Amino acid sequence: MKIQNIALPDPLKIKLTRIKLHLWRGNIEPALYRLDERIARCSDKSAEQLETLKTYIINNANKIINYQELPVN
What we know:
Oligomer: single chain
């Protein structure tokens, strides 16, 4: 699932950047914390989409890679 493909208003998409960076680094808990903050502050439709993202992250937590720790060739 790609964060940039979620149909959200632009100001809300910009705020998802930190969530995406947490996930890129394998930091699931901080990403979920920030996602919960976003869900609490947005409209019903946007909240529904963010809840879907949250469910996806939780269900795939064991597959999220810390890309910073991968060796560079």
